Backbone:
C-alpha cells in the first residue's frame, strides 16, 4: 500500500510562514479613495418604538454594507412642554408633554464613493415622523451625553485665570 | 494763638518771627525752624522687598501644576452618563412589581404549534425582505465598481475627480414621509414650545 500521507517531496518539507504583520510603509500613503474620518448619523423622533427599530435597522445596514461602525448610542431625550393658545388670545387652551428621543450611529472611514449610496439607502427606509441628520463628528455630540463635572470646570477656570497651562 | 514763644519764654531764639526790640543771641547761621505736630507714634513705613521674578514664576508654576494634577485625577474617573429615561423602568412600576406578578399557566399544545408556525412564517418573510435589500445593494455596488474601473482605464484625471469627497454632501438632513397630505386652508393654532429638558448644571 502507498502511504501517501507519509510520502513528502523535498518541496513540501520547506517551512511555511504566514505573514502576520505587514510592514507599515505599505499603508503610509493613505487610502486611494478619500474618506470621511468620523460620520454621525443622528435620528430624532417623538415616537420611541419606531425610532428604536429604525436605529437598529440603520446599524445592521451599515454592517451589511461592510462599513466600519465605530459606536452607536442614545442621547437623553429633549422634553417639550407644548401649549396651544385659544384662538386670537394668549390664554392656554391645552398643554402637552412630549419628548424628542434621539439615536446616533457613528461610522468610521466612510469612503466618498460609499457615502451617497449609504445615505440613499438610509433615506429610502426612513419611517414617518423621524428626522435624519448625517454630519461629521464634533466633540459636542458626545459631550452632551455626560453630566457636567462642576469641580473640573472650576479647576479649568482657575487654570485659565492663572494664565493657561504650564508650558513643558 | 498759641505759639512756642508764648509757651516757653526761652524758646524765643528758635522761632523765626522776630519781635522788634528784643535781642537774642544765637550762634546758629541758619534759623532753626521747629514745627510742632501731633504725636504720630508710628513706625516708618517698611520697604517693600522686591520679589525675585524667578521666585514669583516658580510659585505660580507650582500652583498651576497642582491644579493640573487635580484636573488629571478628576478626568481619570470617566464622567457619568446622563440617565436615559426611555431605557429605565419607571419607579412607580418598580414599587408595584410585586402586585404585577401573575402566575403563568402551562401552554396548550395547539397554541405552541401555532406560535412555532407563525414564527417560521415571520422569519421567512423577514429573510426575503433582507435578501432583496442586500441583493439590491450588492448589484448597485458592483455596477458602481465596474463604472469606476472603466473610468480609470479611460482617464486617470477624471477618475481622480470622480473619487473626491463631496463637500456639499454633509451635513445632510431628511424628514420621514407623512401619512396624509397637508389639509387645505388649515389654520394652525397659536402656541409655544417650551424646552423643559433637565440640565445638570
Residues:
Amino acid at each position: 500500500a502507498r502511504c501517501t500521507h507519509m510520502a513528502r517531496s523535498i518541496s513540501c518539507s520547506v517551512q511555511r510562514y504566514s505573514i502576520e504583520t505587514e510592514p507599515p510603509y505599505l499603508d503610509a500613503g493613505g487610502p486611494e479613495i478619500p474618506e470621511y474620518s468620523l460620520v454621525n448619523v443622528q435620528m430624532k423622533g417623538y415616537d420611541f418604538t419606531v425610532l428604536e427599530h429604525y436605529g437598529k435597522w440603520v446599524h445592521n445596514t451599515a454592517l451589511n454594507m461592510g462599513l466600519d461602525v465605530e459606536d452607536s448610542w442614545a442621547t437623553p431625550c429633549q422634553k417639550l412642554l407644548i401649549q396651544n393658545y385659544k384662538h386670537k388670545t394668549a390664554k392656554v387652551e391645552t398643554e402637552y408633554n412630549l419628548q424628542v428621543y434621539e439615536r446616533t450611529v457613528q461610522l468610521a472611514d466612510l469612503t466618498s464613493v460609499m457615502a451617497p449610496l449609504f445615505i440613499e439607502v438610509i433615506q429610502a427606509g426612513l419611517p414617518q415622523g423621524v428626522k435624519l441628520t448625517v454630519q461629521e463628528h464634533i466633540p459636542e455630540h458626545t459631550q452632551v451625553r455626560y453630566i457636567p463635572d462642576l469641580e473640573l470646570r472650576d479647576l479649568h477656570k482657575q487654570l485659565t485665570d492663572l494664565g493657561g497651562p504650564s508650558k513643558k | 494763638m498759641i505759639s512756642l514763644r508764648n509757651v516757653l519764654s526761652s524758646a524765643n531764639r528758635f522761632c523765626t518771627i522776630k519781635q522788634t526790640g528784643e535781642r537774642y543771641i544765637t550762634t546758629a547761621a541758619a534759623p532753626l525752624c521747629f514745627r510742632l505736630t501731633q504725636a504720630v507714634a508710628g513706625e516708618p513705613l517698611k520697604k517693600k522687598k522686591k520679589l525675585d521674578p524667578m521666585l514669583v514664576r516658580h510659585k505660580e508654576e507650582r500652583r498651576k501644576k497642582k491644579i493640573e494634577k487635580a484636573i488629571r485625577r478628576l478626568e481619570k474617573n470617566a464622567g457619568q452618563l446622563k440617565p436615559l429615561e426611555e431605557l429605565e423602568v419607571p419607579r412607580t412600576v418598580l414599587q408595584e412589581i410585586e402586585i404585577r406578578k401573575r402566575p403563568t399557566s402551562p401552554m396548550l399544545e395547539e397554541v405552541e404549534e401555532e406560535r412555532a408556525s407563525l414564527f417560521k412564517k415571520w422569519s421567512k418573510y423577514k429573510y426575503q425582505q433582507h435578501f432583496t435589500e442586500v441583493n439590491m445593494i450588492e448589484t448597485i455596488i458592483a455596477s458602481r465598481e465596474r463604472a469606476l474601473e472603466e473610468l480609470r482605464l479611460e482617464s486617470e484625471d477624471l477618475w481622480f475627480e470622480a473619487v473626491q469627497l463631496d463637500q456639499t454632501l454633509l451635513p445632510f438632513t431628511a424628514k420621514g414621509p407623512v401619512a396624509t397630505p397637508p389639509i387645505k386652508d388649515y389654520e394652525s393654532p397659536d402656541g409655544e414650545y417650551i424646552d423643559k429638558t433637565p440640565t445638570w448644571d
Chain A touches chain B through 63 residues (CB under 8 Å). The mean pLDDT of chain A is 86. Residues 33-147 of chain A form a domain with the Alpha-Beta Plaits fold (CATH 3.30.70.600). The longest strand of chain A covers residues 92-111.
